[in-house]
Amino acid sequence: EHTNGSNLIKNLLFVPQRNYTIALHCVNVLALAIGFSGNEHFSLAERKILGLSAILHDVGKTKINANILKAPKMLTDEEFKELQTHTTIGHQLINKCKFADPDIKMTALQHHERIDGSGYPNGLRRISRIAQIVGIIDCYEALTNDDRPYRNAFDPLKALTIFKDEVEAGKFSRKIFENFAYSLI
Questions:
Q1: CB count in 10 Å sphere of residue 182
Q2: DSSP symbol at 151
Q3: For 112-150, how does the pLDDT look when each residue is reduced to its tens digit (9 = 90+)?
């Protein structure tokens, strides 16, 4: 059954109550995506799709156990597998809405996929361009703005250096990475 998106909006409204870090992360990903789209001269329609994809990419985390989201330690394999389900859950939540562009729901599903097939949930090599953009921005934002129990946040230059290594390893598109790096200037 399709909805007008009100249930999705309600899920988003509860994110700051459940986990402020995730809410801030999604807003930061949105801001970086808007910067990227301006640098790339996206049309207004393309900017809207990228913006909605960016703000909704982690909506599936609204259905993940809060103890896992707030864990003050590295996750166990079992906990990490549960966390990984946020991609398919997000896809299902967005799929119930009447968004015209499929990239919005595909980004929720594919933003942790990698072009070498090493990502999740499906180990895809062919990933939507919007999902690739949001995937790079998502990782960069997490590296630069989120202290983890096992590491502190990186400064932007260190994060880009880490990313360059991942690009060289074939996990991310070199062109999208370079365009994103230029959008930060």
A1: 11
A2: B
A3: 999 999 999 999 999 999 999 999 999 999 999 876 666
